[in-house]
Sequence to fold (1024 residues):
Amino acid sequence: MDFFNNHKQLFTAAFLLFAVLTLFVCIIPAFNNEQNNAPLPNAIPLDEQAILGKAVFIANGCVACHTQQVRNVDMDKVWGSRPSIAADYADIHRTDTWRNTATLMGTERTGPDLTNIGLRQPSIDWHLVHLYNPRIVVKESIMPAYPFLFEVKNKLEEGDVVVNVPDEFRNGRKGKIIAGAEALQLVAYLKALKQTKLPDGTPEPDFLYKKPGDLGSAKKGEPKELNGAMLYTNNCQSCHQGNGEGLKGAFPALKGSKIVLDDNPELMVDIIMNGYSARENEGYGAMPAVGTNSKLKPEEIAAIMNHEKTSWGNNAKKVTTEQVKELMEVVKVKASK
Amino acid sequence: MSFTSVLLWACFLVLLTAFLVSVFIYNRVKQAKDLLKNRSYRGPESQLQQHLNTFSSSQIEALQNHLKKKRIAGVKLTKSRLLSLGTIIFLIFSSQQGFSQTTNTSGSIWTEGGVIITLILILIPILAGIWLMMVKVNNLFRQYQDKQKVQEADELVRLLDQADQVALQKALSKRKDALDYALTNKELSGTIPAEDEKGLLHQIQSDPGLPVVALKKRALKRPGVDPALSKLILWYLGAATFWLLFGTTVGEYLGIKFVAPDADQLSWLSFGRLRPVHTNAVFWGWASLGMIGLGLYVVPRVGNAPLASIKMGWYSLWLINAAVVVGSLCLMAGINNGGGEYREYIWPVMLLFGIGLILTLINFLQTVARRKTKEIYISNWYIVASVIFAIVISVVAYVPWWQDGLGETIIQGYYMHQGVGMWFMLFTLGIVYYFLPQQLNKPIYSYSLGILAFWTQILFYTLIGTHHFVFSSIPWWLQTVAILGSMGMVIPVAAGTTNFIMTFKGAWHKVLSSYTLPFFIVGIIFYFTGSLQGTAEAFRTTNLVWHFTDFTVAHSHLTMYGIICFFLWAGIYALVPRLTGKEAPQITVGAHFWLALIGLMFYTIPLMYGSTLKGLMWMDGKPFIDSVVFMAPYWLWRAIGGSLMWLSHLFFAYNFYKMLKGNKTIDVTEVAIEKLNLSNASAEIKL
Fold:
C-alpha cells in the first residue's frame, strides 16, 4: 500500500491515533476531574508548618513506600473510615515553579498507608522517636532511619524538643538529641493527614469485596471471640510494644499497670475512648483517643482489654462486651462535659 | 524408634542376608551341575565346529602357525586347593550364634540408646562374616569351574590332533578371511582430494582442542560501517553500559536495604531518594541510550542510506547523559518533581532529555526520508513511532495545565505505562525486527503480523495506564477501560511472539552455534509471559491480592529486565563486533547470560510467591507489621538474585570492553596483503 510507503503519511497517522487516544483516556479525564471536584466543605487546608513538612516528605521520597489512598475495597478499611474520593485530592495544586502537583497517592505499600495517620497516631513523641530510628518503637520495621533531621546539642535552648533515644540507637552520639526544624515540620504534616468527614447527608461510598463472614454479620448466632492479640498489634503495639513494657520515658508499660489490673474497667475504657495526658509530667507522651479515632466497636475494645489484662503476666478479671458497651456510653457523656 | 522396631529391623536384615546367601549358593551349585550335564551330551564333531566359531582372527593365526610346526604345547595346570567344608559350617554356625545372641537377650535395658548402638555394632561383624562366607563360597565354585575348563581345553587339543589336517587348514583360512573383512572407508567419497570450489566453507577448525564452553560461531564479516557513525554508536552503547552498572549498583544497594535497613543513615543515600535514582538511571541512562545507539545503526541500514546527521547524534548523546547526571544528583539532594514514578526528574532536567529526543527524531525522520528503498522497513515504523510517542508523553506529563488534584494521578498512570510500553517496548521491538532476522539469516516470518502488532499496540496500550490505580478514586469507567485495554494487549503480544518464534522455524539449529540468539529467545519468552502477566495483574480480582505488594516490582523486572535488557544485549553482541572487528570471549558472554537469567529467576520468583501470600494476609486483616516480618526471607532472596544480576553486568561491561579494546585476532592473509600493499606503495614513491 502506498500509504505505508510514505513516511509522512505513516508517521502522521500513528501520531494522530496516539494523540487522539491520549486525549480521551488522559487529558480530558484529567481536565474533567480538575473542574468537577471541589475540596470538601469541612476540609482543613494544611498550615504553614505542614506545607513545609510535605516538602520534606516529598524530598525524601517517602511515597516510594507509603500510599495515601484508601481504596474502596474491604481490605483497606484498616487505613480509613471511608474510601478516598476525588474531592479529597481536589485542593492539591502545583507545588511551585519547579515541581509538579503531589497527590502522593503512591503505588507501593511497603509501609502503612498514611491517609489517616494523623488520627491513628497523633503522638508527636512517637513520631519523633520513630523518625530518628523506626526500630526504637517497631523492632521489625525496615523503614530508613532519619537521624539527619535531628540535631545533637550539649546545652538546651528554649523551645528545643528533646527526643528520648535509647543508648543502643545513638550510634555514639553524645549529648541531647533535639528534633530539627525539618523533623518537626514533617511530624506536623503527618499529624495533619486526617480523612475529612463527608458533609452531613452525603452517603459514604461502599467498601467492595467484603469477606463472606462480614456479609453474614447480620445473622444471629454465637458471638465470635475476636482476636484480641491481633487487634492489639493493629491499634496499640506501636507505642506499648509487643511485650507490653512500653518504652522507657515515652510510652508507659501495660504490664503490671495499675489501671489495666484494676477490677473496675471504667478508667481504662475512658482512656481508650478519650485519650489520656495525666502522666505527661513524668515525660510520657499524651495518649490519643484510639477507640474513638479508629471507630472501634465494643466487642473489639473488650477483646483488646482482655488481651491486655491477661498477657505478659497480667492476671486481672476479664470484661464483657456488655460491660464495655455501657461504660462507653458513660465515658462519652463524661468527655462531652 | 522403639526397641521392638529396632529389633525387628535387625532380624529382618539378618534374615534377608541369609536368604540372599542361600539363593546365591543355590545358583552357583546349579551352574556347576549344568556344566557337567552339557559336557556329557556333546559329540566330538559338533564340538570342534563350535570351538572354531569362537576363535578370533589372531587365535586362528596362532593355531595355524602351530599346526605348521606340528607341535602341541602342553598346558600347565596348577592344582587348586579346596576350602574345607568345615570352614563353611563354622561360618554358618558363628553367624547363627551371633544371631541367636541378639534375639535371645531380653530386659528393660533394651530401650537404652547405648544398648541399641551396641546391637548395631554387633550386627556389623555378623554381616561382615556372612559377606566373607559368600566370597569364600564363590571362590570355591570358581576354582571348580576353572578345573572344568582346563579339562575342556585338554579335550580340544585332543580333537585338533585327531582331525583331518587338510580340511582343518582350509576351514581355518576360510574363517580367517571372513573375520578379516573390512570396508576401505572410501566407498562413497572416492579417492579424489576434496576441494571447496564454491567457497562455501568458513571458519574451519582443524584443531578443536578441549574447549571449556561450547564453541559458538564467530560474527560474520560485514561490509564496513562509516567510522564516524561507528564511533557515535559505540559512545552511545558505552554510556549505556556505564549507566547500567551505575543504576544496578544503586538497585543492588536498595535491595540490601530491605534486609539491612540501617546499612547507612545518610540523607543522600536514604531509600526514598535512591529508589528513583535507580529506576531513572536504568530507564533514561541505560535502556534509552542503548536503544538509540542500536537505532542509529538500524534506521539508516534498513533504508540503505547514511544517517542524516552524525552531529545531531552527538548533541543528543550529551543532552541525555547530562539529564541523567544532573537528575541523579538532584534526586539524591532531595530535589524531585513530586513523587510520580519515572517522573521524578524536575522539568528542567527532563527538558534536556526531551531536546535529546527531539534531535533524535529529526535525525531519524530525515534518514528515513532519504531512504533508497521504496518501502519503510517495519523496524523503522516501530523505532520512529516510539520516539514520537516518547516526546508526546513527556509533554503531556510535564505540562502543568491538567495536573491539579486527581488530574495528576490520571496523567501519572498514563505517563508511567506509556513510557514503558510506547517508548521502551516499541523501540526495542523495532530493534528485534531488524537483528533477529539478521542473526538467523532469513526474513521475518510475517510482515503483516508485524503491522497488526504495531497498530493494535497503539490502540490498546494507550488505554491501559490507569490500571495502576484500580480501586482508587479516579473514575470507575476509566479503570474499566484500562482493564479492557490490558486484555486487548493479548493481540499484539501474541502476534509479535508468533512472528518471532515462526522466524526461528527451520533455523532452530542455529541457536546452538550462536551466542546472540539465546538472548533473543529469553527476550521473546519474557515478552510473552511478562506481558501477559501484566494483563492478568490488571483484573480487579487479582489487583486485590497483588496491588501495592512487591509483585509489581517482580513484574517490572520480568519485563524491563527480561524483555528490554535481554533484547538490548542481544543487539549489542550482534552489532559491536561488526563495528570494531573484535569479539568478546565466549566464556564471559556465557557467564553474563546465565548469571543474568538465573539471577532474574531468583529475584522474581520468591518475590512473586511471597507477595501473593502477603496480599492474602492483608485481605485476612492480619496486622501490617506481620506482613513485613513475613516478607523478610523473600526480600533476602531478592537481594541474592539481584547480586547475581549485578555480577552479570560486570561480565557484560568486561565483554563490552573486550569488544572495544580486546586483542584483535591477527588474520595472517590480511596482514600479508597489507604488507604487500605497503611495499608496493613505497616502491611507487621511490619511482
User: Anything to note?
Assistant: Chain B has two domains: 3-71+81-180, 228-616+626-672. Residues 71-91, 93-107 of chain B have pLDDT under 50 and may be disordered. DSSP finds 22 helices and no strands in chain B.
